[in-house]
């Protein structure tokens, strides 16, 4: 379990959507300092947040951000991309671009901040996933999130001896720019942010943010045709 009151927290993608809600909820819970990243730090609007320019796919940008945030005890990997490239028809470069953001980005951040968190006495890493970690409906997007889920599970084992807990947050559609064109029930970003921070404070390994996500996770234990009924046609 990790206390957020007084903590120094680094949130990627902190200028909008879930990231913005995380920054707001962190300060509501008494966080001491919140670094909020964006490609353009001027888009970070919370008056108390420390705005940081960051491109998560650029190792030099990640290293510079970590060098300027040596007091961090909690890292939240929230930044992501939704390309959704087709494996058969889209340029392979589009698939790689999605993996660079959704898989390698969190890995670069974790590798940069794990030594920082360890030096500061241990702490927590939360990584935002998706229900599509377990449901192959988004081409390169779902594949990148499935790979990220595996990465998170591995890092949880690797970092536990160093005093760093790791949590994965999974959810379906959230009412953000990313899902603006989706006609389906959506969670409020503030609800997801609150659940995510609850998970940090209680030491949860994994958080399932809504009913659809819970149903899909349960479905992994069943026959594939339950998740993919088109296979029966």
Q: Quickly count the helices.
A: 7
What name is given to the CATH topology? Rossmann fold
H/E order of the elements? EHEEHEHEHEHEHH
Q: Look at the helices and sheets and give the structural class.
A: alpha/beta
**Count the strands?**
7
Tell me roughly what share of residues is in helical segments. 40-55%
Biggest sheet strand order reads: 3-2-1-4-5-6-7
| Rg computed from alpha carbons, rounded to a whole number of angstroms | 17 Å
- What name goes with the CATH superfamily? NAD(P)-binding Rossmann-like Domain
Distance between the termini: 47 Å
* Averaged pLDDT: 95
In short, what is this structure?
The protein has 233 residues and is α/β, with parallel strands linked by helices. It has helices at residues 17-28, 59-67, 92-119, 140-159, 189-202, 211-219, 224-227; strands at residues 8-11, 33-38, 50-53, 74-77, 123-128, 164-170, 206-208.
């Amino acid at each position: 379990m990790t206390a957020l009151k007084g903590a120094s927290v680094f949130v990627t993608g902190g200028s909008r959507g879930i990231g913005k809600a995380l920054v707001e909820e962190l300060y509501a819970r008494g966080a001491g300092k919140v670094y909020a990243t964006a490609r353009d730090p001027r888009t970070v609007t919370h008056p108390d947040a420390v705005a940081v320019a960051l491109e998560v796919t650029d190792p030099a940008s990640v290293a510079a951000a970590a060098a300027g945030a040596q007091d961090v005890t909690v890292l939240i990997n929230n930044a992501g991309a939704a390309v959704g490239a087709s494996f058969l028809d889209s340029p392979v470069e589009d698939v790689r671009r999605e993996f660079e953001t959704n898989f390698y980005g969190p890995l670069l951040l974790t590798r940069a901040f794990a030594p920082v968190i360890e030096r500061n006495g241990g702490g927590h890493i939360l990584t935002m996933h998706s229900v599509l970690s377990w449901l192959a409906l988004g081409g390169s997007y779902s594949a990148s999130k499935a790979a990220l889920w595996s990465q998170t599970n591995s890092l949880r084992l690797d970092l536990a001896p160093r005093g760093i807990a790791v949590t994965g947050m999974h959810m379906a559609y959230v009412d953000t720019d990313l899902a603006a064109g989706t006609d389906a029930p959506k969670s409020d970003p503030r609800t997801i942010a609150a659940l995510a921070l609850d998970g940090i404070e209680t030491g949860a390994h994994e958080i399932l943010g809504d009913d659809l996500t819970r149903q899909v996770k349960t479905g992994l234990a069943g026959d594939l045709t339950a998740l993919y009924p088109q296979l029966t046609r």
